[in-house]
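Reply to thread "Modeling small-molecule complexes from scratch"

Following up on the discussion above, here's a worked example others can learn from. I took a protein sequence and the SMILES for zinc ion and predicted the complex. Inputs first:
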Amino acid sequence: MTIAEERCNKDGARFTDLRRKVFEILLMQGRPMGAYAILEQLRDAGLSSQPPVAYRALEFLIAHDLAHKVERLNAFVACVNPGQTHAPAFMICRLCDGVAETHAEPARGALGATARAAGFQIEKTMVEAIGVCPSCVDVKERPDQ
Ligand SMILES: [Zn+2]
Ligand SMILES: [Zn+2]
């Protein structure tokens, strides 16, 4: 939370109550949340639950590297390394929808080389890998009884 505040101060942005609350909700959840689930929690907290307001707060968090959108799940998740500009990569479990964030710089690797060769300038990459997380691997390998 302090890191988030520092980042906002640095960017000259206001970390309003609503933005703070949305960030808190994502942190508490610890896993991706759809916009509707976030709206519900805002309503429970007695804050504005107007979709445009919540979306603007989410856009704000994303713009300041405090949260990310997981496109595949159409959901939002708090950043594990908030406040630093980075290219997140997500490992998404197809069994439990759990998501782990890691960092990748695909624009510097083979993709970057291919793009340069094609004269394409990469501005943003989204890496989302689908698979099975460690806890689901255990379950899967346990024989049914
Ligand atoms: Zn991140
Ligand atoms: Zn899993």
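What I'd highlight from this example: The two ends are 45 Å apart (CA to CA). Residues 87-145 form a domain with the Dna Ligase; domain 1 fold (CATH 3.30.1490.190). Questions welcome below.
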